[in-house]
Specification:
This protein has six helices and five strands. The chain is an alpha/beta fold. Helix 1 packs parallel to helix 5 and helix 3 crosses helix 5. The protein is globular. The chain starts with a strand and ends with a helix.
Length: about 150
Amino acid sequence: MKLHIAWIGRTKSAPIQSLTAEYLKRLSRFAACDARELASEGGLLKLLEKSAGRKPPVLVLLDSRGRQLTSEEIANFLEYHQSHDTQELLFAVGPADGWSDATRVAANSILSFGKVTLPHELARVVLLEQLYRGFTILKGHPYHGGH
Protein backbone atom coordinates (compact mmCIF):
# COMPACT_ATOMS: atom_id res chain seq x y z
CA MET A 1 0.00 0.00 0.00
CA LYS A 2 1.26 3.47 -0.84
CA LEU A 3 0.42 6.57 1.18
CA HIS A 4 0.03 9.99 -0.37
CA ILE A 5 -0.22 13.02 1.87
CA ALA A 6 -1.49 16.20 0.22
CA TRP A 7 -2.16 19.64 1.59
CA ILE A 8 -3.33 22.93 0.24
CA GLY A 9 -0.90 25.84 0.44
CA ARG A 10 2.79 26.42 0.82
CA THR A 11 4.71 25.62 3.96
CA LYS A 12 6.42 28.72 5.26
CA SER A 13 7.55 27.53 8.68
CA ALA A 14 10.95 25.81 8.93
CA PRO A 15 9.93 23.83 12.05
CA ILE A 16 6.81 22.52 10.25
CA GLN A 17 8.95 21.56 7.24
CA SER A 18 11.36 19.75 9.56
CA LEU A 19 8.62 17.85 11.40
CA THR A 20 6.93 16.94 8.11
CA ALA A 21 10.21 15.53 6.76
CA GLU A 22 10.89 13.64 10.00
CA TYR A 23 7.50 11.90 10.09
CA LEU A 24 7.60 11.13 6.36
CA LYS A 25 10.98 9.48 6.95
CA ARG A 26 9.58 7.48 9.87
CA LEU A 27 6.49 6.46 7.88
CA SER A 28 8.64 5.23 5.01
CA ARG A 29 9.79 2.37 7.26
CA PHE A 30 6.25 0.98 7.14
CA ALA A 31 4.86 2.03 3.75
CA ALA A 32 5.90 3.81 0.60
CA CYS A 33 4.79 7.42 0.95
CA ASP A 34 5.03 10.79 -0.68
CA ALA A 35 3.89 14.30 0.09
CA ARG A 36 2.51 17.01 -2.16
CA GLU A 37 1.89 20.68 -1.72
CA LEU A 38 -1.06 21.71 -3.84
CA ALA A 39 -1.91 25.27 -4.81
CA SER A 40 -5.66 24.81 -4.44
CA GLU A 41 -8.47 22.38 -3.80
CA GLY A 42 -8.82 22.11 -7.56
CA GLY A 43 -5.33 20.61 -7.60
CA LEU A 44 -6.54 17.76 -5.42
CA LEU A 45 -9.49 17.10 -7.73
CA LYS A 46 -7.16 17.13 -10.76
CA LEU A 47 -4.90 14.65 -8.98
CA LEU A 48 -7.89 12.35 -8.54
CA GLU A 49 -8.90 12.79 -12.20
CA LYS A 50 -5.41 11.76 -13.35
CA SER A 51 -5.90 8.49 -11.46
CA ALA A 52 -9.24 7.77 -13.16
CA GLY A 53 -7.75 5.37 -15.74
CA ARG A 54 -6.57 2.92 -13.11
CA LYS A 55 -7.89 2.12 -9.68
CA PRO A 56 -8.17 5.53 -8.00
CA PRO A 57 -6.68 6.11 -4.56
CA VAL A 58 -8.93 5.96 -1.52
CA LEU A 59 -9.42 9.63 -0.63
CA VAL A 60 -9.41 10.49 3.07
CA LEU A 61 -10.11 14.13 3.91
CA LEU A 62 -9.25 15.80 7.18
CA ASP A 63 -12.17 18.00 8.12
CA SER A 64 -13.59 19.27 11.42
CA ARG A 65 -16.95 17.72 10.48
CA GLY A 66 -15.43 14.27 10.01
CA ARG A 67 -15.43 11.17 12.17
CA GLN A 68 -13.13 11.22 15.18
CA LEU A 69 -10.90 8.19 15.69
CA THR A 70 -8.60 7.12 18.49
CA SER A 71 -5.02 6.22 17.63
CA GLU A 72 -5.96 2.55 17.88
CA GLU A 73 -8.86 3.11 15.46
CA ILE A 74 -6.48 4.81 13.03
CA ALA A 75 -4.29 1.69 13.27
CA ASN A 76 -7.37 -0.45 12.54
CA PHE A 77 -8.20 1.78 9.56
CA LEU A 78 -4.70 1.26 8.16
CA GLU A 79 -4.84 -2.48 8.82
CA TYR A 80 -8.22 -2.73 7.08
CA HIS A 81 -6.85 -1.09 3.95
CA GLN A 82 -3.70 -3.23 4.02
CA SER A 83 -5.72 -6.43 4.33
CA HIS A 84 -8.19 -5.41 1.62
CA ASP A 85 -5.42 -4.73 -0.91
CA THR A 86 -5.96 -1.00 -1.12
CA GLN A 87 -3.22 0.13 -3.45
CA GLU A 88 -3.16 3.81 -2.52
CA LEU A 89 -4.47 5.92 0.35
CA LEU A 90 -4.56 9.66 -0.27
CA PHE A 91 -4.88 11.74 2.91
CA ALA A 92 -5.62 15.42 2.29
CA VAL A 93 -5.46 18.38 4.66
CA GLY A 94 -7.63 21.16 3.34
CA PRO A 95 -7.51 24.86 2.84
CA ALA A 96 -8.12 27.32 5.66
CA ASP A 97 -11.80 27.68 4.71
CA GLY A 98 -12.41 23.93 4.67
CA TRP A 99 -13.41 21.58 1.86
CA SER A 100 -16.10 22.32 -0.67
CA ASP A 101 -19.15 20.06 -0.90
CA ALA A 102 -17.86 18.69 -4.23
CA THR A 103 -14.61 17.52 -2.65
CA ARG A 104 -16.41 16.12 0.39
CA VAL A 105 -18.64 14.08 -1.95
CA ALA A 106 -15.55 12.73 -3.77
CA ALA A 107 -14.05 11.47 -0.49
CA ASN A 108 -14.19 7.86 0.62
CA SER A 109 -13.71 8.86 4.27
CA ILE A 110 -13.71 12.09 6.23
CA LEU A 111 -11.80 12.18 9.50
CA SER A 112 -11.40 14.81 12.20
CA PHE A 113 -8.91 15.49 14.96
CA GLY A 114 -11.69 16.78 17.18
CA LYS A 115 -13.72 19.90 17.67
CA VAL A 116 -10.70 22.16 18.01
CA THR A 117 -9.53 24.19 15.05
CA LEU A 118 -5.92 23.50 14.08
CA PRO A 119 -3.84 25.54 11.68
CA HIS A 120 -3.66 23.40 8.54
CA GLU A 121 0.14 23.15 8.75
CA LEU A 122 -0.12 21.78 12.29
CA ALA A 123 -2.96 19.45 11.26
CA ARG A 124 -0.62 17.96 8.66
CA VAL A 125 2.03 17.20 11.28
CA VAL A 126 -0.61 15.69 13.57
CA LEU A 127 -1.84 13.53 10.68
CA LEU A 128 1.67 12.29 9.89
CA GLU A 129 2.36 11.55 13.55
CA GLN A 130 -0.91 9.65 13.91
CA LEU A 131 -0.24 7.59 10.78
CA TYR A 132 3.20 6.76 12.13
CA ARG A 133 1.67 5.91 15.52
CA GLY A 134 -0.92 3.72 13.81
CA PHE A 135 1.76 1.67 12.08
CA THR A 136 3.75 1.33 15.30
CA ILE A 137 0.62 0.03 17.04
CA LEU A 138 0.18 -2.57 14.29
CA LYS A 139 3.82 -3.66 14.54
CA GLY A 140 3.89 -3.76 18.36
CA HIS A 141 6.58 -1.07 18.40
CA PRO A 142 7.05 0.57 21.82
CA TYR A 143 6.47 4.13 20.47
CA HIS A 144 2.75 4.05 21.28
CA GLY A 145 3.11 2.30 24.62
CA GLY A 146 5.45 4.98 25.90
CA HIS A 147 2.86 7.75 25.90
